[in-house]
Amino acid sequence: MNDINDTIIPEPVPEYPDWRKDAKTLTNAGLSEEEQDWFCDARPQPAKKSWQVMENFLNWARSNSLWILAFGTGCGAIELRPLITARYDISRLGMQPRPTPRQASVFMIGGYVSIKTLKRIVRSYEQMQGPKFVVAVCSCAINGGMYWDSYNTVKRIDEYIPVDVYVTGCMPRPEAVLAGFSKLKELIKGGKAEGQNLYAEKFDWYKENQKRVIKDWNMPDYNW
Amino acid sequence: MKKLYDILSLQFELADFESKRSDLAFCKVKASQAISLLTHLRDIHGYTHLVMLTCVDWLEDKQFQLTYLLHNYATKTDLGILVFIDRDHPVMDSLHHLWKQGRVYQRELHEMFGIDFPGSPGVEEPMILEGWQGPPPMRRDFDTKAYSDETYSHRPRVQNEPEQHMKEQLYSED
């Protein structure tokens, strides 16, 4: 038994240099030398706040123009589609789906997250322009759900990207998702949806968690 | 189906014919003859469609059972060919030259069970397990719970005893 396992297990990935030594820049060590030049090595910075009245106005404006990244990561993503139809009509909340992360400000994690999907989620999240918010829908994204003992599904998404609102259920009804989005709007208006700043502040911790489960890290560390 | 089995038995070493329904039967064949039997069935007996290629892990017998399920559009019958291969040296001949979809099944089996299909294009590429470093996960001696516990962190569970909870809710002043 041991000798076949030895043949199947690939060579261990060479250890990347410790990218935390230089706190100001990122090494992008997962990429080849040529590709490292294609990406910026700056780290994310927490957004600076202006004075409170201005910030209140900006938060009100942000909460009324939430564009969702239409990236269905699991079975819960199907609950997003009824919201767009006439029955639930999410556009009355000022929300609409967008096809690209560059135009979106809300990332809805709809269900289980496998390692292959996590790579795309991290990539999409980092491509989104701030201010950006994450809504974790379905129990799989929150505590693993029915994939609690799966070999390829992460059990909680908030270790890899910051989550602002959780919506429980397997799967939640569109009303529940709608309530989650309404809650998100309240949080944004109150200035409490600070996931993006949390990501910038605890960037090393998030990156360490991501690299621990994504064994073949072949993407830049930030800044696509 | 039994008739077909008798005809095939003249050329191939078949065993254990089992008719599940009037249009579904299974039989065993030696691993070395499997590909020639499949070619024969496809070209002469009209079993032109490979429905699926799947694997069963018989851990106690130290064998992998490969099931090739074929469909005949003319007679509307299914024929399953069972091939047993050694679990310690899981190598099987490739059928990518017979059915193009076979290469996807073989890629999946290579990833999930560690069965090697030499010559099948792209069989080494990962399908869903990108960067996987453990043993093949669908083998029965792979402990998925233990792997999950040591790889992914668990959200601790907060539980309230209903009786205690309601007491605190209703009679918290006492």
If you had to describe this structure to a student in words, what would you say it looks like?
Chain A has 224 residues and is an alpha/beta fold. Chain A has a domain at 68-213: 3-Layer(aba) Sandwich (Rossmann fold), CATH 3.40.50.12280. Chain A has helices at residues 2-8, 33-36, 52-63, 80-84, 115-127, 139-143, 174-189, 195-201, 203-213; strands spanning 66-69, 95-98, 106-110, 113-114, 133-137, 153-154, 165-167. In chain A, the strands form two sheets. A five-stranded parallel β-sheet of chain A has the order 2-1-3-5-7. In chain A, strands 4-6 form a two-stranded antiparallel ribbon. Chain A starts with a helix and ends in an 11-residue tail after the last helix. Chain B is of the alpha+beta class and 174 residues long. In chain B, a hairpin with a 4-residue loop joins strand 3 (49-58) and strand 4 (63-72). The longest helix of chain B has 11 residues, at 102-112. The termini of chain B are far apart. Classes of the chains: A alpha/beta (224), B alpha+beta (174). The interface between A and B is medium-sized, with 30 and 27 residues.
